[in-house]
Every structure is written in C-alpha cells, then in structure tokens.
Amino acid sequence: MADIPKHPDKFEDVLVQVQHDLSQLKYNIEKINVGEKTATLDIKVLDNAISKTQSSIRRHAEDYLKSVNKQQLVLPTIVDIEKQTLKTYKWKPSLESLPDVYSKRKTFGAVFPERKVKPEAAERLAVTKAKGKCVQYLPEVELEPVIKPSLLRMSAQHNIMSLQPRLELHFSKKELDFKPHKESECQAHSESRVGIKVGESEHLLTSLPSLPTQITASDSMDQMETQDQSVDAYKSTNIFPFTIVKGQIDPMAKDFICFKEKFSWCWSNVAEVLNDLTKLLREFAVPFAKVDGEHLIELLRESNYCWRKTLPKAALFSVLENKGEVLELVSRPGQRYRGEGGRDVAATRIQTWWRRYVIRTCYLYYYRRKMAAEAISLSYMFHYQKCQVKKTLQAKRFRQLINYRRRAERLAENWKHIRSSKRTIIHIPSLGFSQSWRLSTRKYDILQNIQITRLCDIRDENVEVIYICPMRLGEDILQYYDNFLRRNGADSSTNQDLPCNKRFLILTPEAVDHFPTRNMCLSTLLKYSPCTLKQIKRQIQGKQAYIVGGVGHEDDLEVADELRVPILGPEPAVSQLYGTKSGGRRIFSEAGLEVPPGKGNVFSLNQLYETLAELIAQNIHIQRWLFKINVQRGGCDAAYCDVCHLPCYSWALRRYQHFGPDLWHSEWVQETVMMKYLEEIPEWLIFYTILAKSSRFQSWSEFLKIFLRQGGVVEAYPPSENVTYVTVDMLLEPNGEVTILSWGDQLHGYCHLDIVGSIIPKTSVHIETLHSICMCVAHACKQNYIMGYVSVGLATFVDHNTMKQKIWGIDLDIGFSDHLAMTQMLLMATGGTLNWRTGCFEVPVKEKCSGQEAEAKRLVDSRYAVVGIRLFHSNLSMLYHSIFLNICKSKCIDFNKKENQGTVFALYDSDDRCTIGMIAVSEDLQGALVTFAQNLSVIHQEILSSKKGEETNFEVVITNIEDMLEVIIQNKNQLED
C-alpha cells in the first residue's frame, strides 16, 4: 500500500464488515453447546484461524494508515474569508480536540479583516513529513475562521487497528467536554492496546464507522450541522438501559445495540468506562446489574473522563439502576474474595495483615524496650542528681555544723568578757517545727511574733537588740513600742542605720512578701533574704554579737554561718531530740525528778492500746490519762480521757480491792484486767476523748492521725483536784553556769493544757525546792549538750496517801519561751527584778525622808503580776490599736510609773489584731488577779457585739481567776481562824 487507495471508503467498509463478522462468529462459537458426550469440536483450531485473519486485517489497516499520513498538507492563502476554499489538514493520530469555530461564523469577519498572506510565509508553513520536519500550523487566531473537519484516529478499544470518523462536538460546561491528549500519550495508548486479545468481551463494544480521507469545506459544514442535530437528539432521548450478567455484556442484546448506536460518537470513552464497570462487577461477583445509559453519559460529561484514567467505585456504582442491591451485596464481608481474582486478593490481604502483625509486634517489643531503657536512664539520672545534691547539702550542713561548734567554743571561752561588755543580740524568734505541723497551724506568723517583747532586753545598758520580725508591722505598733521603750529610759530606732546612741532595730526579711502562705519558719525566711542579711552584717560589723533563736532548725546554722556569729543555743538536732515531750521525760528521768506514770515514743495504734491498758492496770487510782503529741513547745496539741467511762473499770476496782495492793502488781492478776481493757479501749477513746483545743483538731481520728505520725506520750494526770503548774525559765550559759531568769504559776484557759499566761512570782512551791530541782535539770541538760535558754514545766499537788507535796516534771522547752519574753516586758515596765533567793518580785520605790534630807532614798517593795500571753477575742480586729489603747485609757486601764502598778499591753500584729498580751501589776496577789479580771471584763463589754459566733477566751480566763480568788479568800479565812 505504497500509494493512497483510490476507493478509500469502500476499503474502509470492507474492514469494518470483516471485523464485525469475526466478532459475531466468535460470540456464536462461545454459545455452542455440545449435546453429546462423544461429539468433539476443535475450537482451538478455529480460534487460531480467526486470530490469523485478524492479524492480517490489522497489518493492512496499519499500511493504510501509513499511506494516509504520508500526504503532504499545504495551507491555502487566506484572501477572503467568505470566499475561502477547501483547506487540507494533516492526519494526526491523536485524541486532541480542536476548538469549535462554527458558532463564530457570523462574527468572524468583524474580528479578522480581509488580509493576504505572503507567499514566503505560505511556503514556510507548508512542511512535509518526508523531509523529517515537524508540521507547522498557522497561529490559532488565524485558524479560527477555517472550517475544521473531523479527525481520523485509531480506536484503542479493539484488538485490530481501525479508523473511526470522529466529530468533535462542543458542549456547554454541563455537557460532555473531552480535553485533548498529547500526541505522544495517545500514540502510546494506542500502541499499548493493539496487542489485546479479540476474544475478550470488553473489546466487542466498539464499532468501526467509515473513515473519509479527504473532506471538503461543504462536507465539513454539513457534518457540523449533523453534530448539532445529534446533540439536540441526545437532549431529548430517554433512558437507554442495558444489563450486565455476571460481569459480562451481551453485545448482541437489543438494548445494548440501541445504546451503542445512539452514542457511537463518543463510544471510545464509553467503552473504557464499561470495561471498568464490568471488571468491578466481576471482582465482586455481582450476578446481575442494570445500567442507566443516560446516567452513564451524564457521568462522562460531568467527570471529564478523558483526563482521568479511572473513575472511583462510587461513581461507577452510581450509574446502576439497582445500585442498592448491588451495594448491599458488595458491602458483605468477604464478597471481594468470591469474585474474579479473589484468591489472589485474599492471599495478598492475609500476607499484608500477617506482615503488619509481625512488624507491629516487633515494633511494640522494640518500643517497650526503648521506653523502658529511657525510663531507667531518666530514673537513674534523677537518682544520681538527687544523690549528688544530697551529698552536696550534707557536706554543706556538716561544714556549717563544724563552724557552729568552733564558734560555740570561742563563745564559751569569751563569755564572761562578752557578758560584761557591750554586745549585740540578734533575736530570731523562729519556730522550727516540722513541715506538717507548720502547714496545719493557722496564723503562724503571729505565733512567731508573740515574742516581740524580746526588745526589752535593752534594759541592760550594754545590750543592743536587732529583732527579726516575721511580718510587716504597721506604724501604730512601731510607734507603741518606741514610746514604751523611750518611756522606760531606752533610745530606739526603726531606721535602716543603727547609730551608736540607738539601742534596738526591727527588721523584716524581704522573703516574707514572696512566701506569704507557706508558713516557713523565720530562719528559713531570713536565709532567703540577702538584703536583710547584708543589713545585719553592716550593723554588727566590729561588734560582739550572737544569735538567740527559738525552736531549733537546720537553717539556723546557715544563717549563723552567713553572718559569722555564734548561736546561744544547742545544735538543732539536739534541740529536736530533747525538746519534745518524750525527750523531756528522758531529761527529767536522768535528773532524778519524778515524772508522771506513762510512756513516750508511741508511734502505732496497737502500741497505744497496749501501753494504755498496761498503764491503767498498773495505776488503777489514776482517773485521767493524757495524750500529748511530740511537739517542741506548748501543750495545746494534747487530749485527755477519764477512765470512769470504761465499762469494766468498776469491775477492775473490785478485783483490786479483792487482791489488795500487794498482789495487784502481780502479772497473773493484771493479765485478765488488761485483756478486758484492750477490748474496750478503742471504743472508749472514740467516744470519750476530749481535745485540749477543738479549733485545731476537729475529731479524735484527726488528732490520732497526727499523734501516730509524729509520735507522742501517754501519761497520767496528777491524782488530785488542786493541781498547780509552775514554769521556770533559766539560762545555761556557755561557760557552764546556770542562771534562773523567771518563775511563775501557770494561768490556764479552757483546760489545764491550754496555757494563756502566768502569775509572777510563784506561790505554790518553796524557792529552795524549786532551785534544787532546776539545778538537777540543768546538770542533766549540760550532760546532753543542751545550752542556752531552757523552760521547765512542773506540776505540784498534795498526795492524799502521804499528805505530802509532790512535784512532777511534765514539760521541757528548749529555747527562749513566751513566758520569759513577757517577763522581760514586765521587768522593763516596772524596773524591778526577780530575786531567786527570796522568791519575790521586787520593784524600786522612791519615798521621801524627813524634810532635813534633800536626797531621796531608793527603797524596794514587792509586787505581784498576772501575765496574759495569748488573750484572744475576734472583735478586737474591728478596732485599730490606737483606738483600742484610747478606750483602755479612758477606762483607767493604764500603767502608773510612779507607783509601779497598773496594766501594760503587748501588741503582736497590725492586720489581724485579734490576739494581745496584757500584764496587770499590783501590791498583792489578790489585787493583781482582780485587776486582770476587771480589765478583761471591761474590754469584753466595750467590744461586745450583737453578732453570735464570737471566738474569745476572755470569759474562760475570768472564770478561772474567780475560782482562784475564792481559794485565796478561803485560805485567808482559815489562817485568821
């Protein structure tokens, strides 16, 4: 086929007819059923013959295509658009679509005016393929008026190479719009589909219409009009349904043939979609599907299929009329594995899941090991860092302890010189309790500032005081103490500098503002206050100075090391060991002082029950037992319970009377009683235990929790109705000497464990007996390396069996006590002294002699004072201190300096203002008690309000004082009689 055939239309019809006959023949052969078993049909031979025929036809079709492509195309000269003649185009085997210019025929003349094309340009544009050059075209603007014929292309849907006349229709955006493929892609696509078998049903869907080789201008215009008519016909067509049975389309079915003939103009794309749909139905083993032909064409138009290789499954299923049934079948589990290639897909899925499982298992194993390794490494790193920090802190604290001991030795060597020379005392009233105790205590800063009366140490002319305050004080309190100290002959200053003529300075650490709710002890706050530390260093530079602390804490050593001054007190560890209730009992036992029956260091519930049962059995005449928490100061953290509420107590008394005192202490006698006690003690404690201060602990269970956590003491209450408690403060000097500083009988509040004040001097114990007890306790303290201020609590009563006075040691507080601080204020206000030899409180009194003597002689007179340390009333917060003092002054509650009698107040804070201290001084004990009670009554009446729920201990103290006055009056009457 070297040349172009003369009758191309006839040749093309022959090719199409042959292909159609072959396809029909093969389809009929597949439908042949062999009725008899002996009959044999050699289909393979016939199939080979058909294949050879198809190959021959394909070869001739390729030769025909090559001959067509060898034609030379020449562009005519454009002279007049309206008179334009036929324009020959080059055949391009591509799916490229050219733009439609038929609709622009009417406006073409206006857009392109008449013009001529140069011959040179026409010759340059006419290029043949024989010369090996690419065909060049006129610009798109120049080609628009030319009428475009239909292009010839190879059908990619058939196994043979066929040529199809394709009319390029141009729809609106909602209609089908096939975008052109690139020439190389179309050729590769066509070549890839040439080798597919003809026997497959998917390739029987296309037809081979006639292929014109040359098109005239008039024919082209007729074809354009035919296209418009076909579009109109398509818009008015009805639905063209056809069926797909078991994934196969019957090409001879009438409905399919009707659908195929109607849409033959775009059949290549329809065939591709149908191939995808039938393949999908075979994969899911769908037995029957009915296709909506019109919906299929609409899908092609909307999806722009020519630019997409495949459509999604949902779009393919949407063209089915019975898509509900199909989707229900497809959605069944495992349906994909029943269709075509199901075994391979199932095997692939199983292998995929198995590989995923293996890889996931390995990954999880690796991940767990990795996370475990990270956790171990992080834990080890944190542990290592913690150990390093711990070692660093231990080394630092050990170094501070060595420095403390070195300075304490120098302080002991030079104490006599320091005591007699000018010195500076740094008062730090810190309460170094445990963190749990501090966090559970309300108004902790006020509790630490109760010892603000330490300022009265400046009554010694050689002493200067730097007082570290745990809170910001208002100007009213500062002015009050400034006036009080000036009135009693001392210069004062609250400025930053301390001149030589100024005697005291009040400083507040700046860390108070940063930790307002942490309840830190004052030493810790001072440690985190570098500005205050620098200020103290400037004040003590070149002077003899030492620190007087409160309850010992480890931060005391760091503050002392920072200031490079000694501490007048024991090591913090020693203070924490012997300053508790259990430690005090140990010191009293070593001193040979009698202690109440009991046991210390109770840390478990069973130990508490067993200890209590044993003590009750051994001391059957004790009516009340006390439970004290191991705190280092105070008696409010305590409770008590009376044995009379035990159901078996009366039975135990009968057994005691039966066996007698001698046999009662035998173990075999007490064993049964103890077993009975153990059964009843738990319930007895729950229902009959009374808390010393209910505002701190709400119930016995809460008290018991803290009692067992910190440890405690179980001890007996003195077996007497009249019990007097005595407080003695003494100083264990670094050089070994002992000085008794103050003593007095305790004044109680709600119970004997709630200490609110004292009566100075003491009247219940002889001074010599008291002195000897104090010396024994001081000797035991020195043997246990206790130095500094120590407060001893004693209980005295009359034993009914022997009718002799007994003294029990019940409390030992290591540090500067609240009682000693108020005593310092008493001595400052009166100018008196406590004579431990006579046991009297002596004050100087000026009395004029005969008129001939001009000078006055100083005489000494005795006084009695009632000291209230913690007097609480919630309504006091409604009055400022200045208004409160004016009210008291108007009610004649004031101090007379000339007679050394009257009342002095101690103010503790400027914000809460609910707690105050008060000292009443009189010539005799009865007068002092009366004055104190009257003052409380007047203040209570002045600040009393109609609101209920007021919290105060004024009334309880007044009641206790009235009871004491009755006893005093009875004793006087007995003496007179």
From TrEMBL:
InterPro entries: ATP-grasp_IQCH, IQCH. PROSITE patterns: IQ. Residues 572-837 form the IQCH-like ATP-grasp domain. Pfam families: ATP-grasp_IQCH. This is IQ motif containing H. It comes from Poecilia reticulata.
